[in-house]
DNA sequence: GAGAGATCCGAGAGCGCTCTCACCCCTCGG
DNA sequence: CCGAGGGGTGAGAGCGCTCTCGGATCTCTC
């Protein structure tokens, strides 16, 4: 299991190179102002001793950690079942790595865990936080704000906290939903149903709003609440078929929901898209391509969302102060556009 | 974006409570030896000032971080595509959280990144590391060992490093494979093919060995190399059908591979299991249940593997020294049993 | 009621690093 | 050839915490 060995300190390197700690520090941190022969001697000493700076000591004085926490405020079962998260995480990871920042993943294990997370953030382990998938009644943003940790949210938090400094990255959920429904209308469909996502999340609410924007006086029985899972899609679809057997289109709050809906439609012998057209949301690959028929859906660039979240945070931390695009001071929220992807289901 | 505010220090709390730093430290760390009225005063001061200990300062002296790195030595595309990883991570996360340890996720972005990871581990950010999904030629274990970080591997590393202290958690891949093939034999199948996993990983090699244990003199044309992906499953299945149209069973190195194989079998009009029986490996839910027909497969408890990895590491770090099961000194590797799950495909 | 022993608390050193500031030496202009 | 100026280097303080150790206080016991 490889035992831990006492590491050489700056002091040791200094002694070996016959210089002061300050000089070694300068060389190690790439500051100039050390003449070449000396610098070389220091580098050799570092090499020979296998010196690696102690981060704890360093952060103690610099108050920087070069680490960012990613908080997923979701029951973990969902986190991993939903590829959405993975994509976003990937974007984040790329961006952070590019700026030499570490990613500290904080998974919450149920509600009580929020306090633990807040404690961790307040403990000064990380320079900032990226928070995902908040629910409306979630105490986390409140706690984080109190902890005073710079934060960027993924998805518009349904909460303003009285402060206007809340920064988030979101897709244009409402606009995307409108596009989806308009597309169905354009196909000549009139009885369009909507299976919502979990309505305690703003993304679900926004998509529902988009649906209603277009279907101003839709039959209320055509809207059924879901929760973004395939299981909910199935349940909701069954309910819809029972209530309104004459429906000719379904706009599902996401692709997973659509998958569930497709399954039930097939079960009931409804042909897609001939009898019922189906549109999803997310363009979650490869799922969206492999359904039968392949799913028409609203694409959002999830990885880009992640990347952007990280970039906004780092910018706020002055990490990329030198970057050319970094004019204009404090970062503000970003809404990414969506695009309709036509496949066979609608 | 919530600006960072100077945090109160131990000193401040001590001043407010009218005691020494030492006393506050004792109270905060739950050490006994502080009389109740005083302790209460300290707790109030902590509360009022919103004091949270500075971790950097703390680790500087204790040399503990209560954090563990999880290193995934896999091109990230695969990491997230494969639910395997998610399960294991979940087990790890649970166990770590239960012992108040943080999970630091290190994703490697290509080969060069190994150096970055090694540097991070050597930097003394974490108390130990959990490393996954190694490939045979991977330089990472070597680097990690040199960094002197206690480590537990997920899956037997195909590398011993000359030291015998390597600890890992693995499934009984070879035994599981034997069970799968014997099951097919028991079904009266004689022409059993095997689609391997990525043969630069020990799990794939072990499963192949298990296959050969039972099919001692199998037609070598019945073994095709894959890489654990559905795409490879399709390709390999096509090749197999071309080479040996008379095959009557397939043992796939994992469920994803089996999914690909099933697709191609259907395409070619072979009925499963009537014409060709198929067995997978992993019992990856829900995939394994939702294939058509539902997949017979070899189950391994992936989450438990993760949990166990974390437990072994923490034990090695003396975190759980008081735990009753913790007799017997240095932890050693664990091989978890597998079980055959019979569904419809074989 | 006094001494021994246990208990509680505070002073202070030190973890490994960064960063300021003062000092030294080297160079160059007059 | 001497003094001013500037760049290179080192001394030392201090980041916020833990932990040892000695002294003060308390509790018994006879």
Automatic annotation (TrEMBL), chains A, B:
The cross-references to PROSITE patterns, in alphabetical order and at most eight, read:
HTH_LACI_2
Matching entries from InterPro entries are given as: HTH_LacI, LacI/GalR-like_sensor, Lambda_DNA-bd_dom_sf, Peripla_BP_I
The record's listing under SUPFAM superfamilies reads:
lambda repressor-like DNA-binding domains, Periplasmic binding protein-like I
Looking at the UniProt entry, the stretches that span the membrane are none
Q: List where this protein forms a coiled coil.
A: none
Q: Does the keyword Transit peptide apply?
A: no
Q: Which UniProt keywords apply?
A: DNA-binding, Transcription, Transcription regulation
Presence of the UniProt keyword Transit peptide in the record: no
Superkingdom of the source species:
Bacteria
Gene Ontology molecular function: any one: DNA binding
- Residue ranges annotated for the HTH lacI-type domain, each copy included: 8-62
Q: Pfam families annotated for this entry?
A: LacI, Peripla_BP_3
Q: Which PANTHER family match?
A: HTH-TYPE TRANSCRIPTIONAL REGULATOR GALS, LACI-RELATED TRANSCRIPTIONAL REPRESSOR
Protein name listed in UniProt: LacI family DNA-binding transcriptional regulator
